[in-house]
Design brief:
It is a single chain. The protein is built from 4 helices and 5 strands. It is an alpha+beta fold. The protein has 2 domains: about 60 residues, no CATH class; about 60 residues, no CATH class. The strands form 2 sheets. The protein has a 3-stranded antiparallel β-sheet with strand order 3-5-4, with helices on one face. Strands 1-2 form a two-stranded antiparallel sheet. The longest helix has 18 residues.
Length: about 150
């Protein structure tokens, strides 16, 4: 296991699960204290290497045996958003592109796109991803693809 401070610095002291600040001064035993979580990237892929990520102790414990969920930002207007972790897992294994959300306006889709790319740059920094926006059926589709 890597050093907590090294991982904390790399992740800018933000929890990879909830995306909120982690206080490095809190005890590792405190609910909101720092902990290192081993997140297996590209499950099932031969030679896949786990990524150690910074998480709050409570976020890390809460996910336990349940698959981790990275929530979409509550201020975004997205309809039927896909689960971020599952989508990233599929794209890291298979490549390609997937519709990850629908939005009622182009500006809502642009805001969701910018948020998603920022979030993924911290969640899976080594996965090259890009987004595109396509109009269809009176709404806009946010598409995530691997480069």
């Amino acid at each position: 296991m890597s050093d907590l401070n090294t991982i904390g610095e790399r992740d800018s002291w933000r929890c990879w699960l909830c995306d909120e600040a982690v206080n490095p001064e809190l005890s590792v035993n405190a609910d909101r204290g720092p902990s290192v979580d081993g997140f297996a990237a590209a499950k099932g892929k031969k030679g896949a290497v786990g990524i150690e990520r910074l998480a709050h102790r409570s976020c890390n414990t809460k996910k336990g045996k349940i698959a981790p969920v990275v929530p979409w930002a509550s201020d975004l207007l997205v309809i039927d958003p896909s689960p971020i972790i599952a989508t990233v897992d599929r794209l890291s294994r298979k490549g390609g592109r997937e519709v990850i959300a629908r939005c009622p306006s182009q500006s809502d889709t642009q805001a969701a796109s910018e948020w998603l790319l920022d979030r993924l740059s911290r969640l899976v920094p080594d996965l090259p991803v890009a987004t595109s926006i396509e109009e269809g059926g009176g709404q806009y589709l946010l598409i995530l693809r691997t480069d």
